[in-house]
């Protein structure tokens, strides 16, 4: 009974351990990176700040409302607040009021500030989208690198399995005296070399998995792995479009270009705000106030005086004031003039940066277009080379089995096949990634299907 319980516990522990290793697809990796990348979170906070700036700009266009009150007690010489005459007594005073101010005109700067806040929120959204685009490409590249290394490792293991069969066959030939023992040593050396390839391949898989996990900011490297999938080169007609067509499409939607365009819009709005300081400003104000003092004395109508209570005094001594104030700028040490000049320079820089970003994008698209064609040819050449190497290997194997080829030449034929298979895997994933980059600039989502 104890053995049965122990076996059940061990099986449960093994199944739990295996369940912890999650196999991630490319889509899951991209989505996780979007949700957990620290830079993305920082940019999202910047976007929230931009939205708050918009609320501030809107609030600046509304009238303010402030309340105030003061309580004081004076002993000795003071001014009686009811008649403004000097007195020498102890007095308890209360003053209260509300006030409101509104800007009627300030060279349209408040309106410009609101427009700028809206544009800044849009610009921050484009900046965030551009960062996410970069993350998608980086994750896809790292994901494909893991796939490439895994396929190479499978190839190394398959090659080693073939070598083990050759080793077994060679031992039989040596024992029967068909081939010399030196051929067996040569095959054993090839097997040892392939074992080292497997070790190196496992290290490359581990390193690429760690790199992908770090890109996703996952620290549990041991339980992180990608889905066991193999991908062929996906069909695509992207090369049927010219680089000019792809560039024009990219300019119309790319977030980095939209961000640069919004920076120009922001600079134009800043210039308008700076020029608004040349205009006079007009503000309106309204104030209501009242007071109380325990030394207040007013006629009672019968030749005497009396001190009204707190509530009565608030009604008796309340008052309203309102009006408007016009401020005309005449001279402020050239601050407004210099501010306008700086804004004009910033606008020119933003326009130049937009043109530079377009040139950079055009260069990137042209390079991506050339890369697709180059890596497609490299992949096709690698496939042809592999086919030729395999045929040569089969021919060499036949000759080796009948003793017409020594072990060294046979191992060289096998090594050429190994190298050709590794080159096919490398060029295949290089081609897939370049193809996806070009499709990405054409507005197609990143997908390996």
Automatic annotation (TrEMBL):
Principal cellular location given in the protein's record: membrane
Cell location: Cell outer membrane
Signal peptide: none
KW Membrane (keyword) present: yes
TM region positions: none
Domain of life: Bacteria
Keywords: Cell outer membrane, Membrane, Transmembrane, Transmembrane beta strand, Transport
Pfam families named among the record's database cross-references: OEP
GO CC list: cell outer membrane; efflux pump complex
GO molecular function terms noted in the UniProt entry: efflux transmembrane transporter activity; porin activity
Protein family: Belongs to the outer membrane factor (OMF) (TC 1.B.17) family.
PANTHER family to which the protein is assigned, alphabetical: OUTER MEMBRANE PROTEIN TOLC
Identification of the protein by name: TolC family protein
């Amino acid at each position: 009974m104890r053995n049965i319980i122990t076996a059940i516990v061990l099986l449960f522990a093994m199944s739990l351990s295996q369940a912890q290793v999650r196999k991630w697809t490319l889509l899951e990796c991209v989505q996780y990176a979007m949700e957990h990348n620290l830079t993305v979170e920082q940019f999202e906070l910047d976007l929230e700040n931009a939205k708050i700036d918009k609320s501030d700009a809107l609030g600046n266009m509304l009238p303010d409302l402030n309340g105030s009150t003061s309580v004081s007690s004076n002993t000795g010489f003071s001014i009686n607040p009811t008649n403004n005459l000097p007195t020498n007594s102890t007095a308890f005073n209360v003053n209260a009021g509300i006030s409101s101010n509104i800007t009627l005109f300030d060279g349209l700067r408040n309106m410009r500030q609101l427009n700028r806040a809206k544009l800044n929120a849009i610009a921050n959204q484009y900046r965030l989208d551009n960062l996410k685009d970069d993350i998608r490409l980086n994750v896809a590249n790292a994901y494909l690198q893991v796939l490439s290394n895994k396929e190479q490792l499978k190839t190394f293991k398959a090659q080693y399995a073939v070598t083990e069969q050759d080793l077994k066959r060679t031992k039989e030939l040596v024992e029967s005296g068909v081939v010399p023992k030196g051929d067996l040593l040569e095959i054993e050396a090839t097997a040892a070399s392939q074992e080292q390839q497997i070790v190196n391949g496992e290290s490359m898989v581990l390193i690429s998995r760690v790199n992908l996990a770090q890109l996703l900011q996952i620290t549990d490297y041991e339980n992180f792995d990608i889905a066991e999938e193999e991908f062929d080169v996906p069909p695509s007609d992207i090369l049927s479009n010219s680089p000019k067509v792809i560039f024009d499409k990219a300019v119309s939607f790319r977030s980095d270009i939209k961000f640069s365009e919004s920076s120009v819009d922001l600079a134009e709005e800043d210039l308008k705000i700076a020029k608004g300081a040349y205009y006079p400003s007009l503000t309106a104000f309204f104030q209501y106030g009242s007071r109380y003092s325990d030394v207040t004395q007013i006629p009672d109508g019968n030749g005497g005086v009396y001190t009204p209570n707190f509530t009565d005094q608030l009604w008796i001594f309340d008052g309203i004031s309102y009006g408007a104030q016009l401020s005309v700028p005449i001279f402020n040490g050239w601050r407004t003039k210099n501010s306008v000049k700086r804004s004009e320079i910033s606008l020119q820089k933003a326009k130049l940066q937009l043109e530079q970003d377009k040139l950079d994008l055009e260069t990137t698209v042209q390079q991506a277009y050339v890369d697709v064609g180059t890596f497609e040819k490299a992949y096709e050449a690698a496939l042809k080379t592999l086919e030729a190497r395999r045929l040569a290997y089969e021919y060499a194997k036949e000759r080796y089995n009948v003793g017409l080829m020594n072990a060294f030449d046979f191992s060289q034929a096998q090594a050429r096949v190994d190298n050709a298979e590794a080159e096919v895997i490398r060029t295949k994933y290089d081609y897939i990634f370049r193809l996806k980059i070009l499709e990405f600039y054409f507005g197609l989502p990143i997908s390996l299907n």
